[in-house]
């Protein structure tokens, strides 16, 4: 206990250095794709070197997907080997128009650090690296050993990160136990993940002119009926949950924890198979019966359900749609079996006890399964227990309390928290004159349904308004753009490749560098470089390119206005 208190005091005293490390880590861009992590791993290497900790860099294919690995042996004798695993790659930032600040800024404002990947999962990975550094310094107090794996490629499956390391040396980088700090929240410990089965389905039928449906129903109608039958059949399959998990999921506190962690209603599908139709393409023209329809299915299988069961069921459905030809192709790289570790492993008890001691008054975290996937699967497939316990994701206006703070002092504003699938949304939409939907685009349709029913005007931020017809405003932005986001995107520095050299332009000088760019007669456009273009050379496989510039076009006058606003602060 004294050693634990001493460690906690040392960690608390080092808070400034830890924050500085995380800030530099976030500022080192590592989007995947393309998956290049060398900048971020250089920051990790610098931190470990400052602590005199030896480490290795592993770049399997020499393409910049760099892994940082290190391990140390406790001096007090033999014992279990614990691996701390976190990924370095993060999701890409898109075109940047939706960001309120540079996504790689690492800005610290009001006690919060901003940037792409802060939550998923650079905060978690940084915490593991910091923990490893402090354990390394105290290895004379340890029995057993500790390993650190700060890996690349997690966002695209882990083939050249975690999976590779375990295959090369299971004992050294697999160990006896893995701990990961993915953003599961401090209220839960994740011990299992659903399996995934990705399928590309092709339906072929006879084609004809639109009126001649007596000759053929066409590929799209056939695909629609087939999809309905697959969803109904697969989602009705019985599930053979392990007894231990079935009993665990029946506990009221576990049900509450699952819905609180992943949204109301999650408990209804966490132990059930689900089918999502992710993409669908077909047809050449509206007045033609299509010959081909191609769609992709994302099937999630709970613990206890194997892909063979699903595929065999689908095979029995296909003959029902003859003479249509239906072929199914598995996307092997994106398909993974379910995986889980035992619920009552000793580390679960240790995590509960430590979490409770650090958060007096809070409940101990509850073990629950995850809906999505992580690198834990590679450990569990190798019969190595793996658990997730990480920071809580917090986003502006995601919680009711933060929305209430925004609404405070505004007599006409009221904050409520509702799920997009909640029937109560009907009432709230109907009693207003206008709904502005800022939810992720996949949920717009649900809001539109209520708006139509309530005869309520509806506006979305998606890119759906024509231009330039609706750009008759001083900034010449479409209404469906976020003016604040678009303006802030003009305040971000740019990096590009020209004549084989990397050119950097500061945010203060960027708008001065805008140049005339002819596209169409009658339109006067100015062009300027947008964010970091250099990684696209690798992403698009054009290593021989001497010039790579990702740019933005704005109407003449816009950059000058943007520069004036920047100068005004």
**DSSP strand count:** 24
Please bin the fraction of helical residues: 25-40%
Q: Which segments are poorly predicted (pLDDT under 50) over 5 or more consecutive residues?
A: 394-399
Gross morphology is globular
Strand order of the largest sheet: 1-2-6-3-7-17
Share of β-strand residues? 15-25%
- Largest β sheet strand count, sense and barrel closure: 6 strands, mixed
Structural class by sheet pairing and helices: alpha+beta
C-alpha-based Rg, rounded: 27 Å
Mean pLDDT: 87
- Span between termini: 52 Å
DSSP helix count? 18
Family: Belongs to the peptidase M20A family.
Domain Peptidase M20 dimerisation: 192-320
InterPro entries: Bact_exopeptidase_dim_dom, NAD(P)-bd_dom_sf, Peptidase_M20, Peptidase_M20_dimer, Peptidase_M20A, Sacchrp_dh-like_C
Protein name: Peptidase M20 dimerisation domain-containing protein
Short overview:
This protein is an alpha+beta fold. Helix 14 (424-430) crosses helix 15.
Can you offer a commentary on this structure?
With 569 residues, the protein is an alpha+beta fold. It is 32% helix and 21% strand. The protein contains 18 helices and 24 strands. α2 packs across α4. Mean pLDDT is 87; it is low at 394-399. This is Peptidase M20 dimerisation domain-containing protein. Residues 192-320 form the Peptidase M20 dimerisation domain. Belongs to the peptidase M20A family. GO terms for molecular function: hydrolase activity; metal ion binding.
């Amino acid at each position: 206990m004294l050693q634990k208190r001493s460690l906690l005091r040392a960690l608390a005293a080092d808070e400034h250095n830890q924050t500085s490390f995380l800030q530099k880590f976030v500022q080192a861009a590592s989007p995947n794709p393309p998956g290049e992590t060398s900048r971020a791993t250089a920051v990790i290497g610098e931190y470990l070197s400052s602590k005199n900790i030896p480490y290795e860099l592993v770049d399997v294919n020499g393409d910049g997907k760099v892994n940082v690995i290190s391990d140390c042996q406790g001096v007090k004798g033999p014992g279990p080997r614990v691996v701390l695993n976190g990924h370095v790659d993060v999701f890409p930032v898109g075109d940047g128009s939706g960001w309120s600040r540079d996504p790689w800024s690492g800005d610290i404002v009001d006690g919060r650090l901003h940037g792409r990947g802060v939550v998923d999962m650079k905060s978690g990975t940084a915490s593991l690296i910091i923990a490893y550094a402090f354990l390394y310094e105290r290895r004379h107090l340890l029995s057993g050993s500790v390993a650190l794996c700060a890996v690349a490629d997690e966002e695209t499956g882990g083939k050249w990160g975690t999976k590779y390391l375990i295959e090369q040396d299971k004992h050294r980088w697999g160990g006896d136990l893995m701990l990961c700090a993915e953003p599961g929240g401090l209220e839960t410990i994740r011990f299992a993940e659903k399996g995934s089965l990705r399928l590309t389905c092709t339906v072929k039928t006879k084609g004809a002119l639109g009126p001649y449906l007596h000759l053929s129903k066409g590929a799209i109608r056939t695909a629609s009926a087939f999809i309905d039958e697959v969803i109904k059949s697969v989602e009705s399959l019985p599930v053979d949950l392990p007894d231990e998990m079935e009993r665990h999921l029946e506990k009221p506190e576990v049900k509450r924890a699952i819905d609180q962690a992943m949204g109301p209603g999650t408990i209804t599908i966490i132990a059930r198979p689900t089918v999502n139709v992710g993409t669908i393409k077909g047809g050449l023209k509206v007045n033609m019966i299509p010959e081909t329809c191609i769609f992709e299915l994302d099937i999630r299988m709970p613990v206890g359900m194997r892909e063979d069961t699903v595929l065999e069921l689908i095979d029995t459905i296909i003959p029902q749609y003859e003479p249509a030809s239906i072929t199914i192709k598995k996307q092997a790289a994106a398909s993974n079996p379910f995986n889980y570790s035992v619920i009552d492993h000793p580390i679960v008890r240790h995590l509960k006890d430590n979490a409770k001691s650090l958060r007096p008054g809070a409940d101990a975290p509850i073990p629950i399964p995850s809906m999505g996937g992580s690198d834990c699967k590679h450990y569990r497939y190798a019969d190595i227990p793996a658990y997730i316990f990480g920071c809580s994701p917090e986003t502006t206006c995601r919680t009711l309390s933060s929305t209430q703070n925004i609404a405070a002092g505004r007599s006409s504003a009221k904050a409520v928290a509702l799920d997009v699938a909640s029937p109560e949304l009907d009432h709230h939409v109907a009693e207003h004159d206008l709904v502005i939907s800022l939810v992720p685009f996949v949920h717009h349709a649900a809001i539109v349904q209520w708006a139509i029913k309530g005869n309520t005007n509806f506006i979305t931020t998606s890119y759906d308004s024509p231009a330039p017809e609706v750009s008759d405003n001083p900034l010449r932005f479409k209404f469906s753009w976020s003016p604040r986001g678009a303006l802030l995107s003009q305040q971000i520095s740019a990096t590009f490749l020209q004549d084989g050299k990397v050119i950097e332009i500061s945010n203060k000088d960027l708008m001065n560098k805008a140049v005339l760019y002819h596209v169409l007669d009658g339109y006067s456009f100015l062009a300027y470089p947008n964010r970091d273009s250099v990684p696209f050379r690798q992403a698009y496989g054009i290593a021989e390119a001497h010039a790579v510039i990702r740019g933005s076009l704005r109407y003449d006058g816009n950059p000058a206005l943007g520069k004036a606003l920047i100068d005004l602060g």
